[in-house]
């Protein structure tokens, strides 16, 4: 179409001006792109961290967090305090509770390596949390005996394969048992994969703590009532501590959304400034080509045709700016961790990223681990590429509207008189 | 007498220059027959270009009517008028007025593109016309690589591409040497004889006037003699 050839050639005729105009858009788009990539990076990190917490809405545990004893003199990890199994029924009766799953977690060594082992009821665990992400083999089944599911990182560390047996040692006299590896789970977070799952009955059996549990995982009927159910539990059941991981996730998501909005606003302001350059360039272009507009109208172009020619030109500026902006942003995002190594990991805590996760990950894990893990790498996602590229095009069109309208409104006789 | 292609009825045009009104045309009653090469002559500022612009639908009269092929073009709206300019008339200007960024061939193609003719057909018809004006080997040249005479022939090809019934030319030889002017007028006579198109040419140039089939003289906004 000749509209495009005219547009392309006019941009080529004024290379320097075109380059300067485009660079205004490039600055805005690349800024936007790198900031959005940063948020995407945090998001994916947050998601994989929370996935390993399980999908439980509420975790109920003893109000005194840890007790000593099982670890022995060399015990690396303290073991959580226990609750009596009878409170499972008490919590199950609370309004708004959809399903519950008791769990017994304890510290234990597998082939000499200390890890956390979770004893769960397979069926209710899957209902409450949505289940583990099984990479190989299968999860535990109801009434399975002496079966174990291990984290992928642990499997690799201990050089194990599905079908082999491992020996679990709680550190107490005569408390060593052999388990069959039936499956491998994967969370994507290295530290979360140093764990194992067995059935609740096996866990109570190996520790000798019959009738006791360490946590109760609760799923609510509706995500919106999580906080109400949590306070109902803490007020009706004495001596328990209630944590709400999904609420933490929601909170984190809210913060990420705020962060996205904040960054997007910065990017938009830059883009807005850049768009004035486009408006200015297009106005100049319209004035310079007044005579050309007159000629085109004289030989039969409608106002609409004139509008198309100038809109095509500003759209091209936007497309080039969007493309170059995404490219520049990608390079910067790629270099970002090297440029800011460490700084951003600290800088992020004011937004509250570290605290919720260290708290939530405190299920047997030191909170020191999390601050080292939240080290944000920008994620270059197709969505961000599409959003930023189309934003460039959109700004191009928007900035071109007024100049194009001015051009289309010119009266042919007057435009032709223009020298 | 042959069919009338252009008929103006009490045509007047008043320009407002701030508070001063300038009467460019007053009650012009002009009749041009189909197939004529009509020359419009007269001193500067007499209203020649205004008359041409009105007939070409570039401007609207203050009073009066213009009938082209029986249609009152003063009653047409903005879009219809653009369509009229696209299909019914062709324009040739003194300073060629080609689009500087496009090649000769593309310049000739523009009216076809505006009319929505597909690319292949556009190419073919534009090349044929460039051949007719003797410029087929200059098709890929930009206007600034062509001489004045060549540019004006490209402009004629562009004016003719949609087969208009009238070609309007405003001082087409005004910027040409006499040899190019003569060649241009011979081309116009040739096209007129072959296609029967009507030419209305505003001019000062005797070379043009001698080759018109009829001369209209305009003075102080009025047709003097026919």
Structure commentary:
The complex is a heterodimer of chains A (419) and B (226). Chain A folds into two domains: 2-49 and 250-417, no CATH class; 58-243, no CATH class. Helices cover 55% and strands 18% of the residues of chain A. Chain A has helices at 2-13, 15-52, 87-92, 122-129, 152-158, 200-207, 226-236, 245-288, 290-298, 303-340, 343-347, 354-360, 368-373, 382-408, 412-417; strands at residues 58-62, 66-67, 79-80, 83-84, 97-110, 113-120, 134-137, 147-151, 165-169, 176-185, 195-199, 212-213, 215-220, 240-243. In chain A, the strands form three sheets. Chain A has a six-stranded mixed beta barrel with strand order 5-6-11-8-10-9. In chain A, strand 9 (165-169) and strand 10 form a beta hairpin. Chain A starts with a helix and ends with a helix. The model of chain A is unreliable at 69-76 and 342-375 (pLDDT under 50). Chain B has 226 residues and is α/β, with parallel strands linked by helices. Chain B is globular. The relative contact order of chain B is 0.20. Chains A and B meet through helix 1, helix 9 and helix 15 of A and helix 2 and helix 3 of B.
Mean pLDDT of chain A: 81
Number of helices of chain B: 7
- Oligomeric organization of the protein chains: heterodimer
Largest interface: A-B, 24 and 30 residues
What is the 3D form of chain A? elongated
Structural class of chain A: alpha+beta
Strand content of chain A: 15-25%
Shape of chain B: globular
Counting helices, strands and paired strands, the structural category of chain B is alpha/beta
Instruction: Round the Cα radius of gyration of chain A to an integer and report it.
Output: 31 Å
The ordered string of helix (H) and strand (E) elements of chain A is HHEEEEHEEHEEHEEEHEEHEHHHHHHHH
Mean pLDDT of chain B: 90
Number of DSSP helices of chain A?
15
State the end-to-end distance of chain A. Answer: 27 Å
Strands ordered across the widest β-sheet of chain B? 7-8-9-4-10-11
The structural domain count of chain A equals 2
Assess the beta-strand content of chain B as a share of residues: 25-35%
Distance between the termini of chain B: 15 Å
Largest sheet of chain A: 6 strands, mixed, barrel
Major beta sheet summary of chain B = 6 strands, mixed
């Amino acid at each position: 179409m000749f509209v495009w050839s005219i547009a392309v050639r006019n941009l080529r005729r004024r290379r320097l001006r075109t380059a300067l105009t485009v660079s205004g858009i490039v600055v805005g788009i690349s800024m936007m792109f790198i900031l959005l990539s940063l948020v995407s990076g945090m998001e994916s990190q947050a998601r994989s961290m929370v996935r390993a917490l399980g999908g439980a809405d509420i975790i109920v545990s003893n109000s005194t967090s840890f007790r000593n004893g099982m670890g022995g003199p060399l015990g690396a990890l303290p073991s959580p305090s226990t609750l009596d199994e009878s409170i499972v029924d008490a919590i199950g009766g609370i309004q708004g509770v959809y399903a519950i799953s008791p769990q017994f977690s304890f510290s234990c060594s597998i082939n000499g390596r200390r890890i956390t082992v979770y004893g769960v009821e397979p069926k209710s665990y899957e209902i409450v949390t949505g289940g583990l992400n099984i990479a190989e083999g299968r999860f535990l089944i109801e009434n399975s005996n002496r079966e174990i599911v291990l984290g992928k990182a642990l499997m690799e560390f201990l050089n194990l394969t599905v079908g082999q047996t491992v020996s679990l040692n709680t550190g107490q006299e005569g408390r060593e048992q052999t388990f069959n590896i039936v499956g491998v789970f994967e969370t994507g977070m290295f530290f979360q994969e140093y764990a194992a799952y067995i059935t609740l009955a096996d866990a109570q059996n190996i520790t000798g703590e019959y009738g006791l549990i360490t946590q109760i995982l609760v799923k609510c009927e509706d995500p919106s009532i999580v906080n109400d159910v949590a306070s109902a539990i803490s007020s009706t059941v004495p001596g328990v501590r209630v944590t709400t991981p999904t609420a933490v996730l929601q909170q984190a998501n809210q913060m990420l959304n705020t962060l996205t909005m904040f960054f997007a606003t910065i990017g938009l302001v830059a883009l807005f400034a850049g768009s004035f350059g486009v408006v200015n360039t297009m106005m100049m272009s319209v004035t310079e080509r007044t005579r050309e507009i007159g000629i085109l109208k004289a030989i039969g172009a409608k106002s609409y045709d004139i509008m198309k020619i100038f809109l095509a030109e500003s759209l091209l500026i936007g497309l080039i700016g969007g493309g170059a902006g995404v490219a520049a942003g990608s390079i910067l995002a790629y270099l970002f961790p090297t440029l800011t190594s460490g700084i951003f990991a600290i800088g992020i805590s004011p937004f509250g990223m570290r605290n919720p996760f260290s708290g939530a990950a405190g299920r047997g894990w030191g909170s020191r681990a999390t601050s080292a893990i939240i080290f944000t790498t920008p994620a270059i996602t197709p969505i961000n590429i599409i959003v930023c590229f189309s934003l460039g095009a959109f700004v191009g069109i928007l900035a071109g509207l007024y100049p194009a309208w001015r051009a289309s409104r010119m009266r042919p006789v007057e435009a032709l008189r223009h020298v | 007498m042959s069919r009338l292609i252009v008929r103006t009825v009490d045509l007047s045009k008043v320009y407002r220059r701030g508070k001063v009104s300038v009467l460019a045309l007053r009650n012009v009653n002009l009749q041009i027959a189909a197939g004529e090469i009509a020359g419009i002559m007269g001193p500067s500022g007499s209203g020649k270009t205004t008359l041409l612009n009105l007939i070409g639908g570039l401007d609207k009269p203050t009073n009066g009517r213009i009938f082209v092929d029986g249609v009152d073009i003063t009653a047409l709206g903005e879009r219809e008028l653009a369509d009229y300019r696209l299909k019914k008339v062709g324009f040739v200007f003194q300073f060629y007025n080609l689009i500087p960024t496009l090649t000769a061939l593309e310049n000739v193609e523009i009216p076809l593109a505006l009319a929505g003719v597909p690319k292949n057909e556009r190419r073919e018809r534009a090349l044929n016309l460039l051949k007719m004006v003797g410029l087929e080997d200059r098709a890929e040249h930009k206007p600034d690589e062509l001489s004045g005479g060549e540019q004006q022939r490209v402009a004629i090809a562009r004016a003719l591409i949609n087969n208009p019934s009238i070609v309007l030319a405003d001082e087409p030889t005004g910027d040409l040497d006499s040899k190019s002017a003569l060649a241009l007028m011979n081309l116009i006579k040739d096209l007129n004889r072959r296609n029967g198109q009507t030419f209305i040419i505003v001019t000062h140039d005797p070379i043009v006037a001698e080759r018109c089939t009829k001369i209209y003289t305009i003075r102080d906004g009025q047709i003097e003699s026919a």
